[in-house]
């Protein structure tokens, strides 16, 4: 599974065809071989960045999180990413019937995982939590993720490109709703007293 990651960055059109032709795997195998590994990249990077490097604001000393606080936030963000991929895969599976495509739920989760790969890889920027670096890498990762979505969905679902555009737009809209829901959940959890704790 991981070998497709390089192909998605170097030749996405061809790679989506290869992914579509791959033998179908179970959701658990997909999560174990790909999703769990890739989703750990931003979570672990953020843990290291927030506890070892910290944010520098102006000429002040770096602001860092306590290890206990960072562990809790790392686990929660990791679970949110895994849940987000599952929700997006389930939505793609549900929506595919509208476009006369009949992929399995496992293939839809695989598609959601592969599409989110640039976001996972872009999480490496969290090793050095700097505002401009995060904005540049985050924007590039989002743009490439959207590109993979619009290029890959028609190929992966084997549907015409005009239907693929509408399907991709629907998936993108739901992705934004999932993002807002995760952010709202974060605010609720922080309101319960499980927010960040700073070292200084």
UniProtKB/TrEMBL annotation:
Residues 7-182 form the Yip1 domain. The chain crosses the membrane at residues 36-58, 70-92, 104-126, 132-153, 165-192. This is Yip1 domain-containing protein. It is a multi-pass membrane protein. Keywords: Membrane, Transmembrane, Transmembrane helix. The keyword Signal does not apply. The keyword Transmembrane applies. GO terms for cellular component: membrane. InterPro entries: Yip1_dom (IPR006977). It comes from the Bacteria. It comes from Pseudomonas brassicacearum. It is found in: Membrane.
